[in-house]
Amino acid sequence: MIGALPLWALLAVFALAGAVVVAASIKATALADIIADRTRLGEALAGGLILGGATSLSGIVVSVDAAWQGDASFAFANAVGGIAAQTLFLAAADLLHREANLEHAAAEPANLFQAIMLLILLSLALCAVAGPDLAYLGVHPASIVLFLAYIAGVRLSAAVRDDPMWRPVQTSATRTDEPEDADEAAKSALRPAIVFVALVLAMGAAGWVIAQVGGTFIARFGLKSSLVGSLVTAVVTSLPELVTTLVAVRRGALQLAVGGIIGGNTFDTLFLVFSDAAYREGSLYHAVGAGDLYWLGTGMLMTAILLAGLILRQRAGPARIGIESVLLVAVYAMASIYELFG
């Protein structure tokens, strides 16, 4: 039904679905912070597990639906393009946090470990593309390994958060992760959790609508699947990460902001697992093109730059943002130009 709509109606539906995703994510950010305090999970881990997974749901729906329809490039580009876009959002958050470089102020060992895990998971996807063309019951063995590696990474991230062997140097600009109200932390997390789940379902439904509109753009106007996936649907379904990151920074929940991006990106690698299972024509990894691989490399490069910034902890750079933020903008801009004109 969506595919038969005229262009103006398609754009209106697309904008409405994006607005639902953004509005739900704003409320979800506040609830994730409350849940983190009441469960004592911690902002960095809550950002990676609760907020990161929830705001990624619409993107999962887009990639899985595209894979089910047989468009491997759309599914793959939406996943890895979203990782690149979400990493870019930290540069915007860095601009918003004027007191010091965001990566300096949000020092947290769990975020360092999750960034490393993200590089490992993306490397597994790259190895799957370059390796033998295998598929058992339509699923590449690398997808199983990637899923198991993600589960192990979550467990290890919790261990790093609870009993870190490394601690950041505390400076006047470092913001520590502490519940803001002891009485608030003693309350039950059940009610905010129920509302949070309802918001997640709304974001998932909006993701399905976005997938249908994106597929229509590809079919009707002859656009490249990698272009629509990496620069249209990936960006729109990543808007919750932008909103939640900026809202978290304004709330002073800096570890939640950085952890939400890195943890969300780590969760987004599972898009490839689910999409590989949904793609019924063989291995998803061997059905993608050079443009999709370029975005995979861009995501890895931007993650490495972010990790370097988290370790360097520069106090301030050009225009009071870290040099890693400047580099993230430059890398993403070059990748976008390549996709548009390459």
Automatic annotation (TrEMBL):
<feature type="transmembrane region" description="Helical">
    <location>
        <begin position="321"/>
        <end position="341"/>
    </location>
</feature>
<feature type="domain" description="Sodium/calcium exchanger membrane region">
    <location>
        <begin position="11"/>
        <end position="152"/>
    </location>
</feature>
<feature type="transmembrane region" description="Helical">
    <location>
        <begin position="227"/>
        <end position="249"/>
    </location>
</feature>
<feature type="transmembrane region" description="Helical">
    <location>
        <begin position="137"/>
        <end position="158"/>
    </location>
</feature>
<dbReference type="InterPro" id="IPR004837">
    <property type="entry name" value="NaCa_Exmemb"/>
</dbReference>
<dbReference type="InterPro" id="IPR044880">
    <property type="entry name" value="NCX_ion-bd_dom_sf"/>
</dbReference>
<protein>
    <submittedName>
        <fullName>Cation antiporter (Na+/Ca2+)</fullName>
    </submittedName>
</protein>
<feature type="transmembrane region" description="Helical">
    <location>
        <begin position="112"/>
        <end position="131"/>
    </location>
</feature>
<dbReference type="GO" id="GO:0055085">
    <property type="term" value="P:transmembrane transport"/>
</dbReference>
<keyword id="KW-1133">Transmembrane helix</keyword>
<keyword id="KW-0812">Transmembrane</keyword>
<keyword id="KW-0472">Membrane</keyword>
<dbReference type="Pfam" id="PF01699">
    <property type="entry name" value="Na_Ca_ex"/>
</dbReference>
<feature type="transmembrane region" description="Helical">
    <location>
        <begin position="256"/>
        <end position="274"/>
    </location>
</feature>
<feature type="transmembrane region" description="Helical">
    <location>
        <begin position="6"/>
        <end position="32"/>
    </location>
</feature>
<feature type="domain" description="Sodium/calcium exchanger membrane region">
    <location>
        <begin position="193"/>
        <end position="335"/>
    </location>
</feature>
<feature type="transmembrane region" description="Helical">
    <location>
        <begin position="193"/>
        <end position="215"/>
    </location>
</feature>
<dbReference type="GO" id="GO:0016020">
    <property type="term" value="C:membrane"/>
</dbReference>
<feature type="transmembrane region" description="Helical">
    <location>
        <begin position="74"/>
        <end position="92"/>
    </location>
</feature>
<feature type="transmembrane region" description="Helical">
    <location>
        <begin position="294"/>
        <end position="312"/>
    </location>
</feature>
<feature type="transmembrane region" description="Helical">
    <location>
        <begin position="44"/>
        <end position="68"/>
    </location>
</feature>
